[in-house]
Amino acid sequence: MKNVLKKSVTLACLASILVTGQAIAAETLFTNSSSTNKEYDRSAAKKYAEKYAERPGNKNYANYGSNSDGGDCTNFVSQVLHEGGGLDFHGKAGYNRNQKDWYYYGPHVPKNTNDKKSRTSSWTGAHQFREHWAVVNGSGGKFAYQAKKYTVQEAIDNFDEIYDDLNVGDIVQFVDKHGKTLHSQVVHRFKNKEVYMAQHSVNDEDYYWGTDLPLSEWLNYGGAYVITIQIKK
Hints:
Blueprint: H1 2-5, H2 14-17, E1 27-31, H3 42-52, H4 73-84, H5 121-124, H6 126-133, E2 146-151, H7 152-157, H8 159-165, E3 171-175, E4 181-191, E5 194-198, H9 215-218, E6 225-230
Helix pairs in contact: 3-4
């Protein structure tokens, strides 16, 4: 899959931060069965990500891009997995358990179990998304195939490991030194040993919208830790 989706362009800055031949540095947080999320359509996820990264154009979903809402990044990533990649909702409408539930029926957090027009915090919140698809402090839903944790420096020094692990449609998250998850992105293409991320967040910061910024540059100011989430093997 990866070889088919790669195209060619040389990223000049990569040579200055990519260090080859490093020992494997990642902490593998968990690994599930190779059949996990086997129905996930990476090609369709890529198309959806590239279509909606520049703007929240799918009218079936609210835009949480204002500063008061905290940013639209995880809402976008969740849409990529569900609308693009075809992954089913998890859990029963009306529940909102970060580890177990992940769905969107409308813009409001559930008020009670009878509220059918609702969303889970794991759909729109970066930290809760990580708790659902991966783990936080060792506890979580583990709905992805595998998750790994790097310090930012480990990620920089071992970028070729990240490149080899990830495929189109996989997720990268950034975590601060206190363990709070800051941002979510989705892999959408590869160019000459570089990984390009599709993402958006706050409406009034053009920097946070689009598909052109490579992961190696994000590592320079993305937080203290990097979580890579492989949706399927």
